[in-house]
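Predict structure. Chain length: 228.
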Amino acid sequence: MKFSRGLAALIFAVLFQTQLAAQYLYKDEVIFNPKFNAEVNKLGSELYEKTGISLKLLMLKELPHSMDIVSYEKEVIKEFNEPTILLTFSEMDAQVDILANETSLYKYFDKKQILSPVSSPVQAFAIALMSMDFSDMTSGGTILPLLAQKAKKGTVLGKYSGSMFNGYADIAEQIAQSKNIVLVNAIGSANQTSIFVVKIIFYGIILIGIYMYIKRRLFYRRQRLEQE
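Prediction complete.
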């Protein structure tokens, strides 16, 4: 059977589009969701076109044997010549990291803030108060607070994709802000809404804990007075 030029051109176009689609969602062994793929690549493409910085997301099932996440990233990042930032998630290892192939790229975003396990200054202060360690009160995390939320059955992949896209968008938006450009595909307020929900849940737990503590103290006090 002979292939026509038209069919050959169609096959080439499909392969070319597939290659482009995998450009910024560089590796996906977890989500396999076309919509997630499209959203990452749409934002990544715009960021690259306007800044020349390639932000790539890696969603791994598990890190290669005997490799930590940073070592893995250092191997992968050798494949790129242009300014590149990797945001990497490994499901089975429960690890997230960000690595840039040029140290100058770190000035465009706050890695420590993005990877903070807490979402707000109040939450950071409460945790520091409980541990009596005020040496590090970094807050504003856009990935780990969402990953830490308990997911209902069947919604784990949604939690992964939501939290990682949240972090991906945070990095992209910080770079854009540093370079004084506007990203049409930025999620903006949606990003803040996700974090706001996490804050509400956290504060709700704190308030319940305070209420139960006061109730318990009043109960013991009333019991002691009755005995006297």
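Summary: Residues 7-21, 189-193 have pLDDT under 50 and may be disordered.
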